[in-house]
Specification:
Blueprint: E1 5-7, H1 10-24, E2 32-36, E3 40-44, H2 50-59, E4 67-73, E5 76-79, H3 81-86, E6 95-97, H4 100-107, E7 121-126, E8 129-136, E9 141-143, H5 154-160, H6 163-174, H7 177-186
Parallel strand pairs: 6-7
Antiparallel strand pairs: 1-2, 2-3, 3-4, 4-5, 7-8, 8-9
Helix pairs in contact: 6-7
Length: about 190
Amino acid sequence: MNPKIKIFNQKEKQEIQKALEKEFGIKSIPGELIKKGEEKIFLFQGNMTPKQIKEIEEMIFIERIGVYFAKDQGGEIRLSIEGTHLLKEQIKENIFEMNEEQEQEWIKGRELNISTGKKQFLVMKYKEDFLGCGKASADKITNFIPKTRRLRTKSWLQKNINKNELKRTWQKNNMGGKQAEALEKNH
């Protein structure tokens, strides 16, 4: 059975807002907060009311609504990359300013081996770009960028993509039958 969406009431939204204010200095969340499953929180800024959203959900399955905004991790709230972008004007505290080398490591999905003196979520920032949150511990900042959104390195591409195989596949798909057969016989 597919889990239903949960639209946060005003009290629940204020609890999230208080946690974000304590953590990052965020004073307001512009829109409706909606939870799907146990952890993921979405931010909806459309023109439907919570009542209208629930009425639609009674008629059809809603996979998701809004933008993936944050994750509830046992009482701690970790903003997503989109969440940090949406609230960047309000984020005033617990910002880790990366240098260019750190930013390159971060967008590749790597942890930063650095001591910050903190043990909490930090908003990761390079110049004017907000790059989600990391979890600071004694000697590192843990990266939460999903694998599908990480920057691929040249060595990864070389290891995982065989140029000759790609070329043969492309040629085979774009040639006539006899030409493709001849190409296969030669390889």
